[in-house]
Design a protein that fits this description.
The chain is α+β, with helices and mostly antiparallel strands. The protein has one domain: Roll (Endonuclease I-creI), CATH 3.10.28. Helix content is about 45%, strand content about 20%. It has nine helices and eight strands. The strands form two sheets. A four-stranded antiparallel β-sheet has the order 1-2-4-3. Helix 3 packs across helix 4 and helix 3 runs parallel beside helix 7. The longest helix has 15 residues. The protein is globular. The model has no long low-confidence stretch (mean pLDDT about 90).
Length: about 220
């Protein structure tokens, strides 16, 4: 049987492939899509907070997937963080109702999400987290960071007949709880520490914190 005719370039290509030589690696690297770092801002600080509180970054073979889940009874949450996702990543996320659950999912596929947010992918329950200096050293950014966390996993309950006030942030990551406690004390609050929660119980402080972080104001 006559062998098929191969051009010189085809022969070179086959030889390089057999020898596992990638002559186009430098070209691909130079043409790879580059994603600019997200500028430091209050929006980014708040967004990092909400992702740490109620989000997840999933590592995929060639990209990453960011997911934020919100309660269907709180459409303002969905609108706000879908808008911030679009603003920060310059790409409109997908928002879908989760079947058989009273919740919506904000979802975005893009490369280097974890790197640009400074948040590890996968389960972060016991993962050490250090607050970035640009948030730590700026009260405005720290307040926006708190807002993201409280919007994701905060709860506010006021029982007027007994004058009981409770503004709580719950999470299973001890590092994150310590950060919340640290910021609150720096802002002159007096948090109560529980195993998986940080609580503000003084009436005046509950009102001040709610106003300070604009909790549930969309």
């Amino acid at each position: 049987m006559q062998k098929p005719f191969l051009s010189r370039s085809e022969k070179i290509s086959r030889t390089m492939k057999a020898r596992k030589i990638d002559n186009f690696k430098n070209w691909r690297d130079s043409h790879r899509v580059r994603y600019a770092l997200i500028p430091h801002s209050g929006d980014l600080a708040e967004y990092i907070g909400v992702v740490l509180g109620d989000g997840n970054i999933e590592a995929c073979p060639r990209t990453e997937r960011l997911i934020i889940v919100g309660n269907s009874n709180n459409p303002g949450f969905i609108r706000r963080y879908a808008r911030l996702t679009h603003l920060l990543f310059n790409k409109k996320p997908t928002t879908t109702k989760i079947r058989n659950v009273n919740a919506f999912r904000i979802s975005l596929y893009q490369k280097y999400i974890s790197e640009r947010l400074g948040i590890a992918s996968g389960n972060r329950k016991d993962t050490p987290y250090t607050l970035p200096n640009w948030i730590e050293n700026n009260d405005i950014f720290s307040i926006r960071f708190l807002r993201g966390l409280f919007e994701a996993e905060g709860s506010l309950s006021i029982h007027l007949p007994t004058c009981t006030y409770n503004f709580s942030f719950s999470n299973h990551n001890a590092y994150l709880l310590n950060i919340v406690e640290h910021i609150l004390r720096r802002l002159e609050f007096h948090p109560e520490i529980r195993n998986n929660a940080i609580r503000i119980r003084r009436k005046a402080e509950v009102k001040r914190l709610k106003k300070l972080i604009a909790f549930r104001e969309y």
